[in-house]
Design goal:
This protein is of the alpha+beta class. The protein contains 6 helices and 5 strands. Helices cover 62% and strands 15% of the residues. The protein starts with a helix and ends with a helix.
Length: 217
């Protein structure tokens, strides 16, 4: 009897172990998969974070480079001066705007296209003003002989467009460089013409108002 009881217990233990083994294996399988998945997610997050940091560094570098170019090219600069050496002399007409296309010794394709767009804008949109000397166009090679003063004064490093508005009885000159605008719109001729048209008209209004104020005073 004891032998039979002992054998039965062995059978029960074997059966329990046999029945319990699949559940144990399943738990171990899912735990292993969960650990692998967690490690994979950690690795993915680490890679994404690394690329995010690289992107932020590159964006910061690009911003610093743009600020450097903006500073050294006179982008958006506004200033006043009695005479701009080599550009605006004492004979300049009060209330007039001189549009200057600046370029270096070697003109790239976009620079030549920019020059074409400037000439077309003045011819098509300011023909009357050009005929009376109110809007004038000048092309200047800032690397050319005798233009060192212009290059230093405006900090020229790349092709750009400058507006020089002659205002008031004393004929002070209002300067506005459009470097950031013209390069941002490079490749979109319609938007470029519209921007330049608006900037010239805005400068005309500013110098005309200044001249009228000086006359009234």
């Amino acid at each position: 009897m004891f032998v039979f009881f002992g054998a039965s217990c062995v059978h029960v233990v074997v059966l329990v172990v046999a029945l319990g083994t699949p559940d144990f294996c399943a738990k171990e399988y899912f735990m292993n998969n969960a650990m692998k998945s967690e490690r994979y997610m950690d690795h993915t997050a680490s890679v994404l974070l690394r690329w995010l940091l690289i992107a932020l560094i590159l964006l910061g570098f690009a911003g610093a480079l743009f600020k450097f170019i903006e500073h050294h090219s006179g982008a958006g600069r506004q200033a006043s001066s009695k005479i701009v050496p080599g550009l605006v002399g004492p004979e300049a007409k009060a209330g007039s705007v001189l549009v200057v296309m600046f370029h270096g010794n070697e003109e790239c394709g976009p620079c030549m296209n920019m020059r074409r767009l400037v000439a077309e804008t003045i011819t098509n949109a300011f023909s009357k003003e050009a005929a009376t000397g109110t809007v004038n166009l000048k092309v200047v090679n800032y690397d050319g002989s005798g233009n060192d003063g212009i290059k230093r004064w405006l900090g020229m490093v790349l092709s750009t467009i400058g507006l020089f508005g002659v205002q008031g009885a004393g004929k002070s000159v209002k300067v506005r460089m459009l470097t950031d605008r013209v390069w941002a719109l490079h490749g979109d001729d319609t938007a470029f013409r519209k921007m330049l048209n608006g900037e010239i008209r805005k400068m005309l209004l500013e110098v005309t108002d200044a001249d009228a104020t000086g006359t009234r005073n």
